Records
---
Amino acid sequence: DQQVKQNSPSLSVQEGRISILNCDYTNSMFDYFLWYKKYPAEGPTFLISISSIKDKNEDGRFTVFLNKSAKHLSLHIVPSQPGDSAVYFCAASLIQGAQKLVFGQGTRLTINP
Amino acid sequence: EPEVTQTPSHQVTQMGQEVILRCVPISNHLYFYWYRQILGQKVEFLVSFYNNEISEKSEIFDDQFSVERPDGSNFTLKIRSTKLEDSAMYFCASREDWSSYNEQFFGPGTRLTVL
């Protein structure tokens, strides 16, 4: 089941620069997308979300972009900070029903000082 | 800030034994979930629970699994006869309501090791 894919298992970025994490999905019925951050031995922590009626959502240093025609979303972190080093998961769901989340494989982001 | 809690943090069991994983969702939340993550793999949906009944379940959630909300605060996942392949991190999550766009809040997880 590859409905949500994060093709980059890891990403290394210098502190202060922009981090861009990418996610692709195949199910055009998905209408709600979320990004979670996960530290070792902790559960996923919600970062930011976007509904399919928007193409951009911003919250502080985090911006999510949605391109429905390409079935692609991205998370931008500007500026990147050492505390941002974690695994980032993209997730998608349908608003109707139980809203179960379908996760990507995750991208490990490392911010270098 | 309210949070989802899970106990135990780590459970070791013998194959064939029953285990119960416990979760306390955020108090005003109405939707509850269990997910699992096998080492090196994706986080996978197991089951959702709303209004005291299962609202959706995955193919993984077979007859060996059950969920219960025995009182107003706990939400449990029972595995009746554990198999080696049940070894994973199990995450509980909760969501405020079903009618709008809102995120699921996850607990810290229970690491289940089946020997």
---
Amino acid sequence: QKEVEQNSGPLSVPEGAIASLNCTYSDRGSQSFFWYRQYSGKSPELIMFIYSNGDKEDGRFTAQLNKASQYVSLLIRDSQPSDSATYLCAVNYSGTYKYIFGTGTRLKVLA
Amino acid sequence: GAVVSQHPSRVICKSGTSVKIECRSLDFQATTMFWYRQFPKQSLMLMATSNEGSKATYEQGVEKDKFLINHASLTLSTLTVTSAHPEDSSFYICSASGGITDTQYFGPGTRLTVL
């Protein structure tokens, strides 16, 4: 069974620090990896996606993918209280358009 | 770009009635749309996947006769909750993907309360 695992948290970091969120997945056939942010009571919004091994940067966010170790991470630099939310990792497998979602990590950025 | 809308954003209905939720991709053609349900403090649960012009594919345990999905065009999918009951109260979210990437863009969600 294909699985995506995340630590549920909460992960608490002080304002201005780097928040590091991790996600592991079970199936080596995984092709695409996504990070979404979900505020309480709202729907998920796309932060970024990554397809290839290595780092991908977009503003304060960096996604890191290591297919050999089957993990993907999201770094948030200069964390702000407005970054406090649940971060969902999603994995798409070859041959299907469906995502497998992790249960999400709740991030708290303390002012 | 990649904007998905949902209507209504919130609906309250009596037990036994049917509720229709619309999902539209506003600035791209969505070849595939997805319907999710989320209960409080839980993760997203995929209900079904729909492709334009074909029948929806439902996930195991989701009643296809209760949750009717129609994907009539490349920009519109509808979910009808038939004979709604209080246990159907939840946050229903659609997403859409299209083009050459498999990225899903989510609508703002519909909060359904069945009395």
---
Amino acid sequence: LAKTTQPISMDSYEGQEVNITCSHNNIATNDYITWYQQFPSQGPRFIIQGYKTKVTNEVASLFIPADRKSSTLSLPRVSLSDTAVYYCLVGGGTGRRALTFGSGTRLQVQP
Amino acid sequence: DSGVTQTPKHLITATGQRVTLRCSPRSGDLSVYWYQQSLDQGLQFLIQYYNGEERAKGNILERFSAQQFPDLHSELNLSSLELGDSALYFCASSEGGREEQFFGPGTRLTVL
């Protein structure tokens, strides 16, 4: 089972770039890294997924170093509506390994 | 709207009882996942099914069981309920086994 660690909380201001790191030391070769956003009383929503190096989409970037033992979600120019909890998820590759969510990082964006 | 539906939205029951939570995945998705989220806690993976077969198992208690039916909907059965089972239970679906997951709105279970 992959073990994941995230900071409990982060504060930022509107317009700033926010980087949230997830540590996953015992990630398996086939595991993918996926990040989700969750608002109170709602299901998580997909942000981005990667396997190695860098992935970018219209809302975020994901940086994964060569050893894959950590990953960093980068949110450019956050707004108030980005205030939420962000989770990394490790797993989903081939085989029957369980999926592991990080404990979540509560991001508070101030005006 | 993710396209994943869960019923019921809320469920209140007593200790020792048994309940069934239902999930309908997005059209075309073959994988269904179940997660438990206790109050102010993170998401705990319970189990995954792919096209009717169990694919991966997480921290699912022996009192809990799940299945995926031929029409791909899934049910999570919780028995001998305890106070600590009170939580939000999410179902998610994906096309195969590793793509992005689409989460349902959850079922809030309260055990009194």
---
Amino acid sequence: GIQVEQSPPDLILQEGANSTLRCNFSDSVNNLQWFHQNPWGQLINLFYIPSGTKQNGRLSATTVATERYSLLYISSSQTTDSGVYFCAVISQASGTYKYIFGTGTRLKVLA
Amino acid sequence: GAVVSQHPSRVICKSGTSVKIECRSLDFQATTMFWYRQFPKQSLMLMATSNEGSKATYEQGVEKDKFLINHASLTLSTLTVTSAHPEDSSFYICSARVQDYGNTIYFGEGSWLTVV
């Protein structure tokens, strides 16, 4: 099956810093989403981005489907950005709507 | 966005008993829901796909008789952990695909299960 790897696995930032999180996938995908899991476990949908670039406030994301990767940019980070960031993909070959999650990036933003 | 509600958010049960977790789509109909399991500091692992009006499709390695899934209506799927054991303690989370929004999926709040 499709493999989804995220980097870096852990990241510590000072408040106000910028960062880039990466999601690599091993096969063609139909869909890709980025999620933020807060310390209470809740998953928040950030972007639905199978291709192209989107921006929402301090966050933006870019997916280059032909090169099998997606990037999540966080600018002017805040302590509330702490948590785990996951990308999830639907493999084109699967013929289903099953999302496979990446390994995650654990982010801690220090005040 | 679409709302998916999960209940209970936390549950503690005794070893050997069964516990049911509900997943509801509050403002849309969900023909397909998904159940995930997450161990501490790990990623989410898909357990099964819940299809309204038919049997669930389980991922390889997931025990069908232990994790019973029922999707009796277009807004409700349930996961029952039968004869729970301490190793079943985990974070269980459901999601639903919103067809009108393309293939965007929304997640419930998750349920922390502790088996003592």
